[in-house]
Amino acid sequence: MYLEIVTPEASLVSGEVESVTVPGVEGEFQMLNNHAPIVSLLSAGKVKFKGNPTIAEGFKSKFKQEGDKWIFEINGGTLEMSNNKVIVLAD
Amino acid sequence: MANLKEIRNRISSVGSTMQITSAMKMVSAAKLKKAQDAITAMRPYSEKLTELLQNLSATLDSDSGSKYSDQREVNKVLVVAITSNRGLAGAFNSNIIKEARRLVDGSFAGKQVDFITLGKKGNDILKKTGKVVENNNAIFDDLSYDATAEIAEKLMELFSNGSYDKIMVIYNHFKNAATQIVTTEQFLPILPPEASETKSTGDYIFEPSKEEIVEGLIPKSLKTQLFKGLRDSVASEHGARMTAMHKATDNATELRDALKLQYNKARQASITNEILEIVGGAEALAG
């Protein structure tokens, strides 16, 4: 599935990933391919994704690698998934 | 005819002014490029957010009755005027001040109108005629979303605790480098989203409920709106300064050319004069 992480200042990540884990306000959850369409609010926490999408130049330092997963910390945000495309609006 | 030294001095002073204006133009052009890129960079975020908010609130059955959409009788108005910290940008700042005064005397005549100014130039002038409750110049030093969010939160607080019934934002909308459009937007209460063709959101899972998501999205959308206004204003400032400095350089070139012509004429006249004197002297000796 396709993942995009955008902030008000720049678009940080775009590309194919295998899985995405996000800190929803009602608990952390993971999405795999063909997950049902969902809209969720996110609380502060870690967005984890598996795969090798393109990370925008100059923002690589904000991403940590842990095993085969990339980790990105957010202060909150919104998530929309539909048609195998995940968009994370991070604050 | 003015004497030669005088003209020479003027030429050199016009020349150094020209150097300054053309350097400022170049600097503004470079900064404009950056500011434009910044506007483009935030577009995906703001578009997606607006789309989500529109789709969701359109499918909500009743008015959500959010504390930010509360339409009250308007007695106290807060106007957020976004100007710049520096001048020499043509009519950039004075247009905003003019618009602010128009609001005070026109649309909100007879109401209490207070200002929050972002930018030194607007503050300098508006504080003389109106009540400026707060001024923030530092925001432009390093324009970040976090700093903007703080201001937006303060505005939301001022609206929801009833200090003000309406909050307006005035800024220069960036159209292109030569054109800035003074724009007045209603910040709070939020206007009901425009009726647009809505995608069906029927088969979405919502976590938490739709209403709560909308509640959560509204503050984000307000912060983004203010951030966009600030970014637009910064780009407009550089555009306006670039245009103003371009014109100033052109005018200085014209002035310098005219002075050079005058200088050469004066020089020629003095040489002719000298020759006449020498010839006259020689003839007197010969006679």
UniProtKB/TrEMBL annotation, chain A:
Keywords annotated in UniProt: ATP synthesis, CF(1), Ion transport, Membrane, Transport
The keyword Cell wall biogenesis/degradation appears for this protein: no
UniProt key word Transport: yes
Gene Ontology molecular function: proton-transporting ATP synthase activity, rotational mechanism
Compartment annotation: Endomembrane system
A Pfam family reported for this protein in Swiss-Prot or TrEMBL: ATP-synt_DE_N
Database matches in CDD domains: F1-ATPase_delta
Topology of the protein relative to the lipid bilayer: Peripheral membrane protein
InterPro entries in the record: ATP_synth_F1_dsu/esu, ATP_synth_F1_dsu/esu_N, ATPsynth_dsu/esu_N
GO CC terms, sorted: endomembrane system; proton-transporting ATP synthase complex
Domain ATP synthase F1 complex delta/epsilon subunit N-terminal: 1-91
Role this protein plays: Produces ATP from ADP in the presence of a proton gradient across the membrane.
Family stated for the protein in its record: Belongs to the ATPase epsilon chain family.
Entry protein name: F-type H+-transporting ATPase subunit epsilon
TrEMBL record, chain B:
Keyword Transport: yes
Domain of life: Bacteria
Keywords for the protein's UniProt record, in alphabetical order: ATP synthesis, Cell membrane, CF(1), Hydrogen ion transport, Ion transport, Membrane, Transport
Originating gene: atpG
CDD domains: F1-ATPase_gamma
Chief place where the protein resides: membrane
Subunit structure: F-type ATPases have 2 components, CF(1) - the catalytic core - and CF(0) - the membrane proton channel. CF(1) has five subunits: alpha(3), beta(3), gamma(1), delta(1), epsilon(1). CF(0) has three main subunits: a, b and c.
GO terms of molecular function: ATP binding; proton-transporting ATP synthase activity, rotational mechanism
One annotated Gene Ontology cellular component of this protein: proton-transporting ATP synthase complex
Membrane topology: Peripheral membrane protein
Places the protein is found: Cell membrane; Membrane; Thylakoid
Family to which this protein belongs: Belongs to the ATPase gamma chain family.
Protein name: ATP synthase gamma chain
